[in-house]
């Protein structure tokens, strides 16, 4: 038995709190955030000092002193007013710049992870959009509102308490207690109360996005089957749930703000009573009394944002969990440590792209045919989708001679699409080998394998753009001559010529302005333009009617002539034209041989022909 290959997907990962992981994303810009904290402390400190100096100035002015006695305080008041605005602007500029740059890095990481294609298949499209947009944006929310304000509050609050204690020790202690209640106890309570609603809000946002995207993209089918009302009700229910959670979140924010205002009022009144008592005892003058009371009032500015920040932590944590669900999705393939290229399979003797023939508009003619040998060799291939799952492929052997066409035939669930996923490097084998031009594909970079092995998937994606741009996806630098040559080989040129805008014709979302057969031919033309050495046609006629199916199969096989072509199908149409047929069921090869050999032999193939 072939030993099971260990892949990256089986390596356990240590899950940390998403909040700390999100903060760690800002580490490369730690100096910028530190500067932002310093500027924020200067801004809030200026605000507290401004009110303290103003209190001293008003109280002193009541005694009618000489103007020279208060001139310094007048200048300080103006300077503090200016510095408060300037430093607040600079703090916002620095912290937002750092947060936006960090957010850009996070988006790049998410896009790069999604570009590997595996995570896209594990999330529903609407939910994935929510993770990509809303849940990614919470990184900025945490860094701007959840990182800088608490640090600023610590610095400025400590300075305010020290100043108040120097004026009146009991007043300083009371201020410290009030700031701790408003800046620590209330935020902790808000965070605890907001954990559940925050998680539900993130989930509700994802549900709404999923329901909305499903309804929009499935609108034609929903209308045709009379199910649009149910779909709309589903969207409305998801919106109602999100609204309900948002109202609860707003109530929590109001509760936090109210608790902070109550603590602020009680602390200021307590400080005033202590100061009055100190003045009566002669331990504190009237002017310092005014200063300490207004300092206490101003000090609560530094902790005012914290309850709202803490109440949002539940939603931020939930968004971070959903974000890291994407980033932590284990890859289905393990990239090799070194670099390499499938040189034998991709060599182009003629020197033109992909074995192209200049006389045929620069398109490939499949130079493997003249070279002989084996383009693709599969031995003992085993794949399954989980440790407890049955084998999707269990010891499959097949050979694709250079320049020939073979077919892999079998019922649904036989493992045919799994084979295509392995060949296109969307999955790693769990056992066995797949050799491309004599090289094991698991030792080659996935993107380089895909430049050699490509084709037409079961449900090719047609982008909401023009025919020209859909074709140029395969080779961006192609000129119109190459595009028309590809269309001719795919038997789509006459239909495009009949269109008023030709190559500039808009195909609509998912190619809805094209027929099913035209979409398949467009995907084939795109594959031909990519100049592959091995063409994989995965159920290319799965969604076509019988008449169109036979015509498309004939065109596909004509266009693929000269390539090393693997036709994956459950249908018997056109199999008399292939060089060899492999019959697969339950992940195993039951029969293989030519069309005539299999018809002459008892087995699945002949039985299928008899019941056709």
From TrEMBL:
<dbReference type="InterPro" id="IPR003593">
    <property type="entry name" value="AAA+_ATPase"/>
</dbReference>
<keyword id="KW-0472">Membrane</keyword>
<feature type="domain" description="ABC transporter">
    <location>
        <begin position="376"/>
        <end position="611"/>
    </location>
</feature>
<dbReference type="InterPro" id="IPR003439">
    <property type="entry name" value="ABC_transporter-like_ATP-bd"/>
</dbReference>
<feature type="transmembrane region" description="Helical">
    <location>
        <begin position="289"/>
        <end position="313"/>
    </location>
</feature>
<dbReference type="InterPro" id="IPR017871">
    <property type="entry name" value="ABC_transporter-like_CS"/>
</dbReference>
<feature type="domain" description="ABC transmembrane type-1">
    <location>
        <begin position="34"/>
        <end position="315"/>
    </location>
</feature>
<keyword id="KW-0067">ATP-binding</keyword>
<feature type="transmembrane region" description="Helical">
    <location>
        <begin position="151"/>
        <end position="169"/>
    </location>
</feature>
<dbReference type="InterPro" id="IPR039421">
    <property type="entry name" value="Type_1_exporter"/>
</dbReference>
<dbReference type="InterPro" id="IPR014223">
    <property type="entry name" value="ABC_CydC/D"/>
</dbReference>
<keyword id="KW-0547">Nucleotide-binding</keyword>
<keyword id="KW-0812">Transmembrane</keyword>
<feature type="compositionally biased region" description="Low complexity">
    <location>
        <begin position="355"/>
        <end position="368"/>
    </location>
</feature>
<protein>
    <submittedName>
        <fullName>Thiol reductant ABC exporter subunit CydC</fullName>
    </submittedName>
</protein>
<feature type="transmembrane region" description="Helical">
    <location>
        <begin position="33"/>
        <end position="59"/>
    </location>
</feature>
<feature type="transmembrane region" description="Helical">
    <location>
        <begin position="65"/>
        <end position="82"/>
    </location>
</feature>
<dbReference type="InterPro" id="IPR027417">
    <property type="entry name" value="P-loop_NTPase"/>
</dbReference>
<keyword id="KW-1133">Transmembrane helix</keyword>
<feature type="region of interest" description="Disordered">
    <location>
        <begin position="331"/>
        <end position="369"/>
    </location>
</feature>
<feature type="transmembrane region" description="Helical">
    <location>
        <begin position="175"/>
        <end position="193"/>
    </location>
</feature>
<dbReference type="Pfam" id="PF00005">
    <property type="entry name" value="ABC_tran"/>
</dbReference>
<dbReference type="Pfam" id="PF00664">
    <property type="entry name" value="ABC_membrane"/>
</dbReference>
<feature type="transmembrane region" description="Helical">
    <location>
        <begin position="252"/>
        <end position="277"/>
    </location>
</feature>
<dbReference type="InterPro" id="IPR011527">
    <property type="entry name" value="ABC1_TM_dom"/>
</dbReference>
<dbReference type="InterPro" id="IPR036640">
    <property type="entry name" value="ABC1_TM_sf"/>
</dbReference>
